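Lab manual, section 2.4: Encoding a predicted structure.

Procedure: take the sequence of the chain (269 residues), apply the prediction step described in section 2.3, and record the output as structure tokens. A sample record is shown.
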Amino acid sequence: MSWSGGSFGAAGTCVLAPNAGVMTLDGTNTWVLRDAGSGRSVVVDPGPSIDAHLGAVDAVAEDVAVVLLTHHHADHSEAARAYAERHRCGVRALDPAYRLGGEGLGEGDVVAVGDLELHVVATPGHTADSLSFVLPAEAAVLTGDTVLGRGTTVVAHPDGQLGAYLSSLDRLRALCDDQGIGSVWPGHGPVIEDALGALDHYLAHRRDRLDQVREALRTLHARAREGEAFPHEGLARAVVEIVYTDVDPVLWGAAELSVRAQLAYLTER
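Recorded output:
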């Protein structure tokens, strides 16, 4: 599926950063949000420090009221401080290290610019500081890397915690159901027009992966009983080689981070 960003609803424009890769898909989605009656905008995740990209964001955003971050990963946050300084505005983020100005950002906050409102939802799991933003006027939720437009996200242990991530998915699903949120505007990949379907898929995928990890552990223990050394030091990689045969080996490093999170989750149970 080809994805190049564009306009969505009356308030949203996605400017796609030119940083495509195996972890960033087509690139980072920088979201510019503005209600029709206002000349001021909110910029979510300015992305990497690439002049051409920031120029493209400027062309859409014009007068920037505030920069928001969904989380701290560099492909979302690298340009935030310099971009905000250029526009003489603040950067609001959950992690204080990424803020510019006195205002933080967290669960229950409402960011209002003109008639535009964004409702902040804490969705930890992909990272400890992951946030999502509900845009009621568009019946949409901006999910950063918590839900991607294509494929599934990495929960990279130890900053990423699978228990927290599963709880965040459950919470987002309940929120979408209760508030009639129909679409996901993600941090990478195309817009999803079936929010509930996407979240159901994510939850089912995680349950399936956990079942596969449990079965891989049983396999490794069975091999050990037959005389093969149990891979205590390389357990995550050994599980990846059993479970992630359907994934391009170039992604096995990321998969190993997810397996570490899965093993930690199972150990806690």
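Check your result against the sample. The two ends are 38 Å apart (CA to CA).
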